[in-house]
Write a structure and sequence with these properties.
It is a single chain. It contains six helices and 14 strands. The protein is of the alpha+beta class. Strands 1, 2, 3, 4, 5, 6, 7, 8, 9, 10, 11, 12, 13 and 14 form a 14-stranded antiparallel sheet that branches.
Length: about 250
């Protein structure tokens, strides 16, 4: 009779044993491992330090880049100009043979080269792609500006290195993921993702040739990819911090 009475109680305990065994494990994990947000914050601080420290970075309101886009197939290198004002104003000029391409972004509005020399307002994917370009130009500042929503992503292994990743949601299906070199805490590459019901597109930039400009680190070489295909290489020739910029620089 005692065995018969004990069996239901024992079966109840045994059926619940996964829960009992998991409790101490979960408690140990909670004690020994900080929250993901804390991990992301620690990595963000290391990245900001590697780029010159927040005390110096916070004094940068924008920059001007002069460079050239290196292309193959016996095409001449294309001079390019880039103006950026934090957090989301961007101007890109590319001198193609016989024509000039212009892209302008002023916050939520953008314009691109149209027929002839006109600029037409950008919408949809065309506007989204410029928003992603501005977010990439805003590295590493965007990590500090959006610290509260930045999360750790999956690591990425390349050439024997495991790169940590920081995922920055940009809203409305737009995401930026920065992959950080564990040795230098500089951003090795960045992938910007555009997710729409009818399409998903990824743009990648790989950075190298880091140089210091007035106490701030910048990559002077950039390899660009779209949906996995190499599209261009950009070489920076001159970079100026805090140039005199006006609202008209980012409007037609």
């Amino acid at each position: 009779a005692e065995l018969s009475d004990a069996r239901p109680r024992w079966e109840t305990i045994m059926n619940a044993r996964p829960l009992f065994f998991l409790v101490p494990i979960l408690i140990a994990l909670a004690i020994t491992r900080p929250a993901a947000a804390d991990d992301a914050g620690t990595l963000i601080d290391a990245v900001l330090s590697a780029y010159g420290g927040w005390a110096r970075l916070s004094t940068v309101t924008g920059y001007r880049v002069e460079g050239k886009i290196l292309t193959g197939h016996q095409e001449a290198d294309k001079p390019t100009l880039r103006l950026f004002a934090r957090p989301s104003r961007l101007k890109i000029v590319i001198e193609h043979p016989g024509r000039t391409e212009v892209r302008l972004l002023d916050g939520a509005k953008g314009w691109r080269s149209g027929p002839g020399r006109t600029l037409v307002e950008a919408e949809g994917v065309m506007l989204d792609s410029m928003v992603l370009q501005a977010a990439r130009a805003n590295l590493p500042w965007i990590l500090a500006e959006r610290r509260s929503v930045v999360k750790l992503g999956d690591p990425f292994v390349v050439m024997g290195r495991s790169l940590a990743s920081l995922v920055v949601p940009l809203g409305e299906g737009l995401t930026l993921t920065a992959f950080v070199d564990p040795a230098t805490h500089l951003i090795d590459r960045v992938i910007t993702q555009l997710d729409r019901p009818a399409m998903t597109t990824g743009f990648e930039a790989r950075f190298s040739d880091f140089r210091e400009v007035e106490g701030v680190r910048f990559p002077f070489r950039e390899e660009n990819f779209a949906s996995g295909a190499h599209t261009a290489s950009t070489q920076i020739l001159k970079l100026t911090l805090n140039p005199k910029l006006t609202e008209t620089d980012f409007r037609p």
